[in-house]
Amino acid sequence: MQGTILQINLSPGGLPKRPVPEAFLTPLGFEGDSVAHPEVHGGPLQAVLLITAEGIDELVARGYPLFYGALGENLTTRGLDRRMLRGGQRFRIGEAIVELTRLRRACKSLDVYSPQLKTEIYEKDMQPGHPAWGLSGFYAAVLKPGWVRAGDPIVLAEIAV
Q: How many CB atoms neighbour CB 119 within 10 A?
C-alpha cells in the first residue's frame, strides 16, 4: 500500500488546519501544531491525524462544504484506500515512521460543516467493511521523528503484531 502526502496541515488549535510545505514530526505531533481540546485530542497515541483526500472528495460530492484540512487532519493523503487502513499498520512518511492507532471519533467541532457530518463519517464500534470506514480519519503514534514534506511518499512499511 502506497500513496503520497498531498498536504501537511497545522493550526494554533481547532479547525480548520492550513497547509504548510513541510514540518518536523515529533512524538507529540508536528512542531507548530496545537489542538483545541487536549483532553480529547493529541498525546503520544494520537499525535497525528491522517485522512485520505479521496474520502474528503467523497464527502464533498455528497454536498458537505469541506476542503483539505477542514476536518482537522494533519496529513491529507492521496492514493491510500481508506477501507484498507487498520490500527497497527506502520507507514514511512518522509524521514518519519508512524503507526496507526485507532479511528478518529467524530466530535461536535465538525458541526460547523453540518450536524449530520458526524453520523456520516463515524459510528460507535464501527468495524472494517462499514461503508464509512476511515472517513473520519486515523490517529497515529510517531515511532520515528523526522521531516515530512508535501509530495513525500507514504508507504506501508510493516504491520505491528
A: 11
- Pull the grid cell for residue 57: 472528495
Torsion of CA 70, 36, 39, 156, to 10 degrees: 40
**For 151, phi and psi rounded to 5 degrees?**
95, -15
Task: Report how far residue 132's alpha carbon sits from residue 145's, in angstroms, rounded to the nearest whole number.
Answer: 30
What is the b/e burial string over 26-50, where b = at least 16 CB atoms within 10 angstroms of the residue's CB? eebbbeebebeeeeebbeeebbbbb
Q: Domains of the chain (ranges plus CATH)?
A: 2-159 (2.40.33.20)
* 28-57 pLDDT per residue, tens: 999 999 876 666 677 899 999 999 999 999
| pLDDT surpassing 90 at residue 153 | yes
Across 34-43, 72-81, 119-128, which has the greatest mean pLDDT? 72-81
User: In a 3-state reduction of DSSP, which class is residue 55?
Assistant: helix
Can you tell me the distance from the alpha carbon of 46 to that of 34, in angstroms, rounded to the nearest whole number? 12
